[in-house]
Amino acid sequence: MIGNSSYYLKEIEFYLQEKNLQEKFQIGQKASKISNIPEIQNIINEIIQTIMKNGGYVVVGHDAKTKILPSARVKLILEADFEIRVYRKAKQLNAKEFEAIGKVFSDLLKCDVDSFDLVLEAKKVATIINTSDLSIEQVVARILSRVLWIRFSDHNMLHLIIFILFVFVYTLRAHFSESN
């Protein structure tokens, strides 16, 4: 007869959560290694460029701004302080144990080191939005304002006025939704 079944269930649940977290890390690491193979990068870049010929899409990645779509009209870099990124990634992976959070920390640090040159190159041609202290709504407002500014700045003054009003209203909405 099992003495304390709830204890054993908690142990099993912890084991499964830990195993799931390890699998998520392993998948991310494998994808990162595969994507660093130059032949794979070239094939993926060609596919993306073919899809993007008609425009209207968002491409994410450090090298998207400089290598994949160097002529894109809107180039944005979303960045955050390192501690904030570790916190967000650990939360996304539901990492609660110190060891798992340490793994997130070391993985992000390695990623930063590996992509340092790409990020420096991209920062020369892109608009940087630091999201450390921004809500999701504020990030969306900044992205939309940049996209709309580029889109409407090519047209007449009426479009520019509409754009300014849109950004003003959206920013007010984001501000007041945080206050409540």
Automatic annotation (TrEMBL):
Q: Which residues form a coiled coil?
A: none
What are the protein's UniProt keywords? ATP-binding, Kinase, Membrane, Nucleotide-binding, Transferase, Transmembrane, Transmembrane helix
Q: Which GO terms describe its molecular function?
A: ATP binding; dCMP kinase activity
In this protein, which residues make up the domain named Cytidylate kinase?
12-146
State the reactions this protein catalyses. Answer: CMP + ATP = CDP + ADP; dCMP + ATP = dCDP + ADP
Q: What is its EC number?
A: 2.7.4.25
Say which enzyme class the record assigns: transferase
The regions listed as transmembrane in this protein's record are 156-176
One Pfam family here = Cytidylate_kin
Superkingdom of the source species: Eukaryota
Task: List this protein's GO terms for biological process.
Answer: nucleobase-containing compound metabolic process
Q: Which InterPro entries match?
A: Cytidylate_kinase_dom (IPR011994), P-loop_NTPase (IPR027417)
Q: What is this protein called?
A: (d)CMP kinase
